[in-house]
Design goal:
The chain contains 5 helices and no strands. Helix content is 78%, strand content 0%. The chain is mainly alpha-helical. It is flat.
């Protein structure tokens, strides 16, 4: 196809011209008072009410559990966590020792160095 035929085909017809920006409409929209959506206060009220009902229900369940069984769930949870941490304490202390992070960092640097060296050797072969 010739260039002038393509250019003529790509031109927009009069009814296809995109609408232009009207400064008067923009000014009118800017000066109009902003409307606040009326659904936001309702959504906030529903969320607050739902959260309050959930917390009150949970409080009632915990109170009934304590009254029925005589076991304090918070004390039981603390006891379970403390027992688990006693068993894990040697690993935590080893990980907190400054030599461990330095050794891990050194191992990573050496691995990267040897990987680059291996790729350079493979590329030159």
């Amino acid at each position: 196809m010739e260039e002038h035929v393509l250019r003529r085909a790509l031109r927009l017809d009069a009814d296809e011209i995109p609408p232009r920006l009207d400064p008067a409409l923009i000014a009118a929209a800017a000066s109009a008072p902003a409307r606040r959506p009326s659904g936001i206060p309702l959504a906030i009220a529903v969320a607050f009410t739902g959260g309050w009902l959930w917390s009150e229900g949970l409080r009632a369940v915990i109170s009934a559990l304590v009254a029925t069984t005589g076991v304090d769930p918070l004390a039981a949870a603390i006891r379970v966590v403390a027992t688990a941490l006693v068993g894990v304490a040697p690993f935590i202390q080893a990980a907190m020792h400054p030599v461990v992070p330095i050794a891990i960092l050194t191992a990573a640097v050496v691995a990267v160095f040897f990987e680059k060296r291996g790729k350079a050797h493979a590329a030159s072969s």
